[in-house]
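Each field is set out underneath.
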Amino acid sequence: MIAETVCSAVSAAGLGIAVVTAYRKRFLTAARLAAYSLVPVGLVMTGVVGWLADTALSPTAWAGFGVLGAAWLLFAGTRAVERRRGAGGRTEPGAVAPAASAPSLGGTSRPAAGTPGAAPRADGSAEDFSDIEAILKKHGI
């Protein structure tokens, strides 16, 4: 009973504000306010407010919301694990493209590190800057 009274009061206040807004010649805004103000009365008349009031005080309904939350957490957790594993859940290394993680720096034609016949890479800093020097020379810098 109290929920219906509160909804009716909110609707009456909203309609009053809509009338004042229409008096100020802002008819589009007044019509929008009137529409929003009629929603609580419509919910009371359809019985939704009574159903919500009964649901909010029902322990069975709260347990149902808990079960729905647990189901959502399970769905979200499985999606996160699936994304972390990769597309389709493949765990074989190199199943898609073995050299996909090697960066491509334009016109360099050296073989990838994992392919046979690849020259052994030096771990020095000179190896790191050789590609940059080649790009700079190509552009005349």
